[in-house]
Write a structure and sequence with these properties.
119 residues
Amino acid sequence: MRRPPPEPMLEFPPLTKATMYCRGCWYALDGVAEDRCPECGRPFNPADRRTYRTKSRREWWSSLRRRFTAAFLVLLVFLLLAGGWLYRRYRIEKDAIAEFNAGNIYVDTAPLGPQRRNQ
């Protein structure tokens, strides 16, 4: 027994992404009749980008998360390099102290400041 062909799907207009969001409540301001947010009442000027947001809340958090992740990775690399350098210096000093204690190294000391003459 054959199935009947599926009914054609309804076609919806493509969804468009909002371009303006309220600075106070993140409401999508595209298509708003007056220059005031219907959600919180905050005024905005479509000609002035400083009066509204251009990213949605999700895009804003994603951008912030990416920046913090990049900063964290840079800090982590710096700490690993600094830790490796400190460990290397520690090993060199430890080996030098071991040789000194074994008597293989002779240290000649001399005064560091100017010499006083006995008068």
